[in-house]
């Protein structure tokens, strides 16, 4: 099957098909906040919205999340990549794809680009192989739009420290690891410029939300999506 966004593949879009929007970025980039804000705004505008995340968007996924983020002791990189892919396979097949097929706008915190950046590049596995693993797992589902919150790893660490929560296995990695992940995300955005929308995560949250809203509105207009109540978004 050919790749590319739904629009570029020429698949039925308009009101028949929903839209798949993912948020990516380093730990502490504020992407979860921005994903929530977008989901709220779209829902208030009358669109059917599903806000979800990886890892952990299903019951099975919650168990995988616990294992992959909090297991004490080593998990080899290939096993780690497979755990994220297993979570993804189940999540996409049982939650995300049915929602998109029903015309829902899916707003998702992290997707396959996280695996490519963290496992493919950060853990030193082959980026192309890790991407292919996720595409196999999801029967080749790619987002229509990926918002990348780019942040300097030192700033991100300061935010995580300020939030004072315990670090999970990935967050506890060195700043070199997070710098590599950041570079990997930016490289992915360069390759797929149509799919990615890169924003500077250091900007104030309201400013970021406004920029993201504007970009998403363009996408919805292009896909011919209108809210359930028929009012423009
Ligand atoms: P996330 O839930 O975004 O973290 P939090 O809610 O604590 O901000 O992601 C959890 C961690 O999993 C994060 O460090 C990135 C990592 N991750 C991968 O390494 N590969 C993946 O494919 C995904 C989805 C996440």
What's a concise summary of this model?
The protein has nine helices and five strands; from the N terminus they run αβαβααβααβααβα. The protein has helices at 6-9, 31-44, 59-70, 77-101, 112-122, 127-137, 153-163, 175-191, 205-223, and strands spanning 19-25, 49-53, 105-109, 145-150, 196-200. The structure holds thymidine-5'-diphosphate.
List the helices and strands and how they pair.
Blueprint: H1 6-9, E1 19-25, H2 31-44, E2 49-53, H3 59-70, H4 77-101, E3 105-109, H5 112-122, H6 127-137, E4 145-150, H7 153-163, H8 175-191, E5 196-200, H9 205-223
Parallel strand pairs: 1-3, 1-4, 2-3, 4-5
Helix pairs in contact: 2-9, 3-4, 4-5, 4-6, 5-6, 5-8
The structure holds thymidine-5'-diphosphate.
Descriptive notes:
The chain has 233 residues and is an alpha/beta fold. It has a single domain (12-223), classed as 3-Layer(aba) Sandwich (Rossmann fold). The protein contains 9 helices and 5 strands. It has helices at 6-9, 31-44, 59-70, 77-101, 112-122, 127-137, 153-163, 175-191, 205-223, and strands at 19-25, 49-53, 105-109, 145-150, 196-200. It has a 5-stranded parallel β-sheet with strand order 2-3-1-4-5, sandwiched between helices. Helix 5 (112-122) runs antiparallel to helix 6 (127-137) and helix 5 packs across helix 8. The protein is globular. Residues 6-15 have low confidence and may be disordered. Thymidine-5'-diphosphate is lined by residues 27, 32, 53-55, 69, 84, 109-110, 114-115, 118-119, 168, 170-171.
């Amino acid at each position: 099957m050919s790749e590319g966004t739904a629009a570029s593949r020429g698949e039925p879009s308009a009101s028949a098909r929903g839209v798949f929007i993912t948020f990516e970025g380093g730990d502490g980039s504020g992407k979860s906040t921005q994903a929530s804000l977008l989901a709220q705004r779209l829902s208030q505008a009358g669109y059917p919205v599903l806000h979800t995340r990886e890892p952990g968007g299903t019951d099975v996924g919650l168990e995988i999340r616990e294992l992959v983020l909090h297991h004490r002791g080593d998990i080899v990189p290939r096993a780690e990549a497979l755990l994220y892919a297993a979570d993804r396979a189940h999540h996409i097949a049982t939650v995300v794809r049915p929602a998109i097929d029903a015309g829902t706008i899916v707003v998702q915190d992290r997707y396959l680009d996280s695996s490519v950046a963290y496992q493919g590049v950060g853990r030193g596995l082959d980026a192309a192989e890790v991407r292919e693993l996720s595409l196999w797992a999801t029967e080749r589902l790619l987002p229509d739009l990926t918002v990348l919150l780019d942040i300097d790893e030192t700033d991100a660490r300061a935010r995580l420290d300020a939030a004072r929560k315990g670090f999970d296995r990935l967050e506890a990695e060195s700043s070199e690891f997070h710098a590599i992940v950041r570079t990997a995300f930016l490289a992915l955005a360069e390759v797929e410029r149509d799919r990615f929308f890169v924003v500077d995560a250091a900007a104030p949250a309201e400013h970021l939300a406004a920029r993201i809203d504007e970009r998403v509105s363009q996408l919805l207009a292009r896909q011919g999506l209108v809210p359930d109540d028929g009012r423009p978004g």
